[in-house]
What does this fold into?
Amino acid sequence: MEASNISRLVVREQKLGHRRVDDEGQVTYKHKPTSELMSAIQLGIGQSIGGLSPKPKRDVLYGDFDVVESIFFPREGSNSTPAHRYSDFRFKTYAPVAFRYFRDLFGIQPEDFLLSLCNEPLKELSNPGASGSIFYLSNDDEFIIKTVQRKEADFLQKLLPGYYMNLNQNPRTLLPKFYGLYCYQCGGKNIRFIIMNNLLPSTVVMHSKFDLKGSTYKRKASQQEVMKPHPTYKDLNFEEFYPDGLLLDADTYSALIKTIERDCRVLQSFKIMDYSMLLGLHNSTIANRSVNRTTDQYSKTVLQPVWRMAQFSTALEAIQSNADPMSVLLQEDQDLLGGIPAHSSNGDKLILYMGIIDILQSYRFSKKLEHAFKSMIADGDTISVHRPGFYAQRFQSFFANKIFKKIPTRQSHSFPLILNVILCRAFLAAKYACVRACVRACVWCGVCARACV
Amino acid sequence: MEASNISRLVVREQKLGHRRVDDEGQVTYKHKPTSELMSAIQLGIGQSIGGLSPKPKRDVLYGDFDVVESIFFPREGSNSTPAHRYSDFRFKTYAPVAFRYFRDLFGIQPEDFLLSLCNEPLKELSNPGASGSIFYLSNDDEFIIKTVQRKEADFLQKLLPGYYMNLNQNPRTLLPKFYGLYCYQCGGKNIRFIIMNNLLPSTVVMHSKFDLKGSTYKRKASQQEVMKPHPTYKDLNFEEFYPDGLLLDADTYSALIKTIERDCRVLQSFKIMDYSMLLGLHNSTIANRSVNRTTDQYSKTVLQPVWRMAQFSTALEAIQSNADPMSVLLQEDQDLLGGIPAHSSNGDKLILYMGIIDILQSYRFSKKLEHAFKSMIADGDTISVHRPGFYAQRFQSFFANKIFKKIPTRQSHSFPLILNVILCRAFLAAKYACVRACVRACVWCGVCARACV
It folds into this structure.
């Protein structure tokens, strides 16, 4: 009895949603080894994209959103499918013509898409998040494959016409970029998954990472999460780490907040809520400092240039900044890699990577119940599941007022620039613990920030 | 008894759908005098468009297609509506933000839209067509207002997301341009109407006019129709008048057929059928000949230049011709006014005005029954109501093969151009009844056509 209880405990500990890890470390999803799932997915995508390519391009029609194409992959192969080493399976492609249109919109060529996803083994991410989804990353760091529940896949399909409208009007958006929706069917099981853009480049060290909703109720990373090598922190942690928020220049701040507001309006129109902003911070100041100390760690800490296939996929491209991203890149020592330049209030130079995630949970489907339940145990204003309009409003206010702060423009400076520089130097010369104060007085000269580290 | 029968007969003859004409010639629609309807519509549109203008422009959301705004117009006026001389009424605007987006797409400014529709009385068209709808034409010839049935209005609202998609991908289309959908409510009656582009400019004399479906079953204008001053002919009449079709240069032919095919694909995707091509022909050769005879009739027969407010609204703009419309205009003596240049096989120079009409009859709503019924009495291939795919295929084949013909390009000419010119002149000099023969031999030199009139 006791042994059985322990065994149950172990099983329970290693199971999250449909994801299980056995004693030997093998990961399964719906009892299917994820290594087999990965290979089958690669076969399926290869066939689906390859089969679509020769078909002449034409306009997307409204009916294209409802189309589901299905290919059977017998183990021994068929006229149209190769032989393989796994169980027979069926591979379904949702709305193939519509997703081809989306990929086109982001400048993703079929051959590049195939090369990224099917040419080399995918990397399985070890941290499955709260949902128990499986995440794969393409070898070139461009795409994320994520398993989704049936209701999420259904909701995405319903969302497609509105998603199309939004992308047409705004290819620049922080909403997830969906490049495909598929279903792997085998032995009575359906494993649905989406292909998305990768928000946090692997080649960039994220000195901290946040999942932010604009709520305070239970929005603190657990002790278990904090113990991880790369924890994902939450709203309350952010307020603790950055009580003064992150400082952006006026143009970038406006562009970013405008984009968040527009994205929230779209989400609200679909009654979507409970979404988060995933925010990764690269601290250039810390990275450069550690380089100075140990040059052999250079390659791990400082940004490495990578080529991004998809357009509008970086945070900098996603926001509607009037500033030319290239000129910003040049100003910022060409080390942004699509991140948004910022400063912390202590003068550290930051590069921000971000995007809105988890949008496929419709309010109508399951959230009403959750809200009703949580309302009983907490004040309605602070729980993270609330009416979509309220949720959107709170989300955008949180980012406009708490997370991001606008650096005053030079014109609104209370002292001439040169005077501030002198003041800063004076502060420093007096060995005054000045960094925060002088950055507040003069964030533009940068002397204090550079001299004070 | 006899008098009563006669009276019934008179009433029956003067009623078509909801449209009635009484003994004094007053036209009513759902028992509402159309003069009152027109004034109320102008009040309603003025208020609706005027109220929308100050609202800041924003992206169209999917939810915008379902919005219906309602304003009450009491006779004595209110804070937001003027006093008027008619019965109290309510005015509903469907999807105001979505239609504003469509008007923007066609370059129609709110103030121009208001000026066209509300500044001067509308012209009521006397020929109501088969549906018994009321048609008003704006004084500047730009817009048509047409009453529609409830199921047509409902269908248009359902169509809007797909319509949006099509316009985004192809502002150049021969499909109707919908600029607004409204409903006038008074005394328990609902009168719904749409605002569309006007296909046939009033300032252009249409020497013949066709409603073409690509079907032959009962597709001949009635004797009653033929007796009218400006009859609308049908498919069988066209084949009789133009057995050799209408000749277009290769580029124009390709662009036109490509546009028809794309439009048919959209209609088919919505299971729409029973639509027609409205085709107006202005015969420049005849017009110029009559000018030569009676110069006082010049203004009535030859094209008058007009300024078109809406973009992509003329037939020439609607087709995806690679040829610059302006250069075509210059070539064709600047007298096209957005019409498409063509020739008849007897060498007459024609200008074509066209567009697809009557698309708001969904297959699912009422056509299935009609098809089942008509199948019993006629061969399925020839009746005009058939499955949408078949309908679309037959429609586009009809235009590609019977209505329009491609003039062979110069390169494929069997004789050098100069030789053809000499041959033509020789035919003419010999007073041979040559026009058809020489145009067939050399449609490019145009000498015969110009010299032979």
The radius of gyration of chain B is 24 Å.
